TrEMBL record:
Its EC number is 2.4.1.1. Belongs to the glycogen phosphorylase family. Pfam families: Phosphorylase (PF00343). Keywords: Carbohydrate metabolism, Glycosyltransferase, Pyridoxal phosphate, Transferase. Its cofactor is pyridoxal 5'-phosphate. One of its GO terms (molecular function) is 1,4-alpha-oligoglucan phosphorylase activity. It is an enzyme of class 2 (transferase). Signal peptide: none annotated. It comes from the Bacteria. This is Alpha-1,4 glucan phosphorylase. It catalyses: [(1->4)-alpha-D-glucosyl](n) + phosphate = [(1->4)-alpha-D-glucosyl](n-1) + alpha-D-glucose 1-phosphate. Allosteric enzyme that catalyzes the rate-limiting step in glycogen catabolism, the phosphorolytic cleavage of glycogen to produce glucose-1-phosphate, and plays a central role in maintaining cellular and organismal glucose homeostasis. InterPro entries: Glycg_phsphrylas (IPR011833), Glyco_trans_35 (IPR000811).
Length: 795
């Protein structure tokens, strides 16, 4: 395609859509016309890919996830289609600014954080390595709330992301299915002696799929993300209240990835996309096969975290009740089809449902769960003893435990980083690990360098091309070749200059958004992730206060800008208190002329994928400071290293593997190890108050929370101080403080020698390739799904 061709098609589409010439349209209309133009460039490949899968009957993966955070798709589609440069040149020729047009697209906030972003990255990667993989989830009408700060407090506004039409989705009315809730189950004997379950008086909801293309990077493969919307069943009488109840199912994303206790609507959501997804898989499968026993040869269903764990029950239901399989056969098929990823050790995130709630909403599924439970106990009690079996069974203490159900109903179970996968076996899943050791495996998370480096940091990408050619764009492992240039001063200087330009852009954004001036020459110290006690943004704040006191004391420090991005779940009071604290400390520091040439704090509101694209390329320091043993993997650690930030970290999650890859001296490591934390917890040997009493600096900082030195945090300061002193500091902030400050100071020292710093930054970039999600999904394919990457035949 030439620029001229593109311009002609773009102008035609604009005219057809809006009956006006391009220059007269609003940027949003221009964006829409551009999206329509781009759609035409992949439409053929999308149809061809589906057709190819049907004809070859290769095995397909269905990735079930209650969250997908794809980010804006325009630039990514252009990049993956290989026409980004051509299109941008065309836009400029027309006098349009590509950045302005890209910004018109709503960023679909259909997820909370790492979990949802990982799911989206996997889809991008599957298409990009030519793997037959689809997403299955929910088309939320409102995404994760938009965050504003009012007087330093988080305020949540609805995210009406569909106000302008989503240009990529296609409504597939002809693929709608009916999802049934409630009712009474009748068991009728079949002639062959088995029982048939029929559920009467169900509450029926129409599930309508919206398909979004997942365009592969230069592969011609276009896979599908299928998101389901709830509607009333046509032709049935509905009053307004009923209608509202149905629409509610897919109205909002739960803004809390760690606490979904007892929420019936959440349970409805889960069954909604699980049932719709499985029904549509089976219907499609039956177009080509008559024997459901061979399902696992053609279909792999992945349970992403526990939310879709009832997929085990729903597939069993269909095989037993609709396909008339025997229990044993249905169970064999189900276990071979399912696999499950655990994403957290946090107890509150291991979903369980009160039996009565589950049974009321999904009576037939509950019967099946009971039968799974009965057989599980019967099969393993003798060998492993009552205690182990009771600890591991799906039903106990009036609860249905979804993680256990997922393990029992899957042939493979994985954690998301080496440490996490080990800890799973020792803690939350330890009893099931005894019974099914062969099922447990690790698949360390990954990221898409396409978005985080190629799109978000084009200057760095171009520099890399200059040295090692463009092959890394296809195969990020090639980045290791950059090591050869660690003594190439000109290159190191160029790297730092590119970083500097990115920092200037972020400084401009901070100026625009917060009215705060920051110097791009300062160290940009970044922590971007959900606000959670275990992630310890509080430790970062304590580090800032340490520097504040030192500067007030006349000490010399290289200038630093602390950049935060974090949303707190609206019901998570402690997290919101920390948000208020960060903003209050920002006010204190930024307004104090005695320190503010050396120390600034910028808390940018509404962190999400798009803001991440602006912050990440500008980071010098990546804060990955969770209490060891609590962060399953982390993925911002990988994104930040890929654009050359140095990691300040505990030995937690994937930090450990990052250090192993980049080299010991490339990371500023501090703090207790997971083992030490576990021992301290087991032996109750940690006493936060003693530390507070013995360490004068800590004492001073903890006191600042309540003595009025930080204005505006009377109640929040008290709450946080109580957590530290009265509740014995559950996340060991005080314990790790001293070594945190020491590690952070080592980075100050290194920054004094720009070339030494640049060398470490380069080592990080060079080692980042192994954390490409392309490799992660290829491993899932080999080890879990038995689906290999393959390109559709070019015809
Ligand atoms: C989880 C974990 C993260 C992990 C992510 C993706 O907390 O450590 O990187 O999943 O596996 N709830 C999450 O975001």
């Amino acid at each position: 395609m030439t620029t001229a061709q593109f311009i002609r098609e773009f102008e035609d589409n604009a005219l057809a859509l809006f009956a006006d010439d391009l220059p007269k349209l609003s940027p949003q209309q221009q964006y829409q016309a551009l999206a329509v133009t781009v759609k035409r460039y992949y439409a053929h490949d999308w149809a061809k890919t589906k057709d190819h899968y049907d004809r070859t009957q290769q095995k397909q993966v269905y990735y079930f996830s209650i969250e997908f955070l794809p980010g804006r798709l325009l630039a990514s589609n252009l990049l993956n289609l290989g026409i980004k440069d051509t299109v941008e040149a065309g836009l400029r020729k027309l006098g349009l600014d590509p950045a302005v047009i890209y910004a018109q697209e709503a960023d679909p906030g259909l997820g909370n954080g790492g979990l949802g972003r990982l799911a989206a990255a996997f889809l991008d990667s599957m298409a990009s390595i030519g793997m037959a993989g689809n997403g299955n989830g929910i088309r939320y009408q409102y995404g994760l709330f938009q965050q504003r700060f009012v007087d330093g407090y988080q305020v949540e506004l609805p995210d009406d992301w569909l106000r302008d039409p989503d240009m990529w989705e296609t409504r597939k009315e002809n693929r709608a299915v009916i999802v049934k809730y409630g009712g009474q189950v009748e068991l009728r004997p079949r002639p062959n002696g088995t029982l048939q379950a029929i559920t009467h008086n169900t509450d029926d909801v129409l599930a309508v799929p919206y398909d979004t293309p997942m365009v592969g990077y230069h592969t011609g493969v276009v896979n599908t993300l299928r998101l389901w919307a709830a509607e009333t069943v046509p032709g049935r009488v509905h009053n307004l209240a009923e209608k509202a109840r149905v629409n509610q199912i897919t109205q909002i994303l739960y803004p809390d990835d760690s606490d979904s206790a007892g929420r019936e609507l959440r349970l409805r959501q889960e069954y909604f996309f699980v049932s719709a997804g499985i029904q549509s898989i089976i219907t499609h499968f039956k177009r080509f096969h008559s024997d459901l026993a061979v399902l696992p040869h053609f279909v792999a269903i992945h349970i992403n975290d526990t939310h879709p764990a009832m997929a085990v029950l729903e597939l069993m239901r269909i095989l037993l009740d609709e396909e008339e399989m025997s229990w044993d056969q249905a169970w064999t098929v189900t276990v071979k089809t399912m696999s499950y990823t655990n994403h957290t050790l946090m107890a509150e995130a291991l979903e369980s449902w009160p039996q009565a709630v589950f049974q009321g909403l999904l009576p037939r599924l509950f019967q099946i769960a009971q039968e799974i439970d009965r057989r599980f106990r019967l099969t393993y009690a003798r060998r492993y003893g009552e205690l182990v079996v009771n600890n591991a069974a799906p039903l106990a203490d009036g609860q249905l435990r979804m993680a256990f159900l997922a393990v029992i109903g899957s042939h493979q179970v994985n954690g998301v980083a080496k440490l996490h996968s080990e800890l799973l076996k020792q803690s939350v899943l330890k009893d099931l690990y005894q019974i099914f050791p062969e099922r447990f495996t690790n698949e360390t998370n990954g990221i898409t360098q396409r978005r985080w480096v190629q799109i978000a940091d084009p200057a760095l990408a171009a520099l890399i091309d200059c040295k090692i050619g463009p092959a890394w764009r296809r195969n990020p492992l090639q980045l290791t070749q950059l090591r050869r240039f660690e003594t190439d001063e000109d290159f190191l200087k160029a790297l730092m200059a590119a970083k500097q330009a990115n920092k200037q852009r972020l400084a401009d954004l901070i100026q625009r958004q917060l009215g705060l001036t920051v110097a791009p020459a300062a160290l940009f110290d970044v922590q971007i992730k959900r606000l959670h006690a275990y992630k310890r943004q509080l430790l970062h704040v304590f580090g800032i206060l340490e520097a504040y006191l030192a500067l007030k004391n006349g000490e010399e420090r290289p200038p630093r800008v602390h950049v935060f991005g974090a949303k707190a779940a609206p019901s998570y009071q402690y997290a919101k208190a920390v948000i208020k604290l960060i903003n209050a400390v920002a006010d204190l520091v930024n307004r104090d002329p005695a320190v503010n040439a050396k120390l600034r704090v910028a808390f940018l509101p509404n962190y999400g994928v798009s803001l991440g694209e602006q912050i990440i390329p500008a980071a010098d320091i990546s804060e990955q400071i969770s209490l060891a043993g609590t962060e399953a993997s982390g993925t911002s650690n990988m994104k930040l290293m890929a654009t050359g930030a140095l990691t300040l970290a505990t030995l937690d999650g994937a930090n450990i593997e990052i250090r192993d890859a980049a080299g010991k001296d490339t990371m500023a490591v501090f703090g207790l190890t997971a083992q030490q934390v576990e021992a301290a917890q087991r032996e109750h040997s940690y006493h936060a108050r003693t530390l507070y009493e013995q360490d004068p600096l800590l004492h001073r900082i903890v006191d600042m929370l309540t003595d009025g030195s930080i204005p505006g945090i009377a109640s929040e300061g008290r709450e946080i101080q109580d957590e530290l002193l009265e509740y014995n500091d559950n996340y060991f902030v005080l314990a790790d403080f001293e070594s945190y400050v020491a590690a952070s100071r080592r980075l100050d020292v290194l920054y004094q020698t720009p070339l030494a710093w640049a060398k470490v930054a380069l080592a990080n970039i060079a080692a980042s390739g192994q954390f490409a999600a392309d490799f992660t999904v290829a491993r899932y394919g080999r080890e879990i799904w038995q689906v290999l990457p393959s390109q559709p035949a070019d015809e």
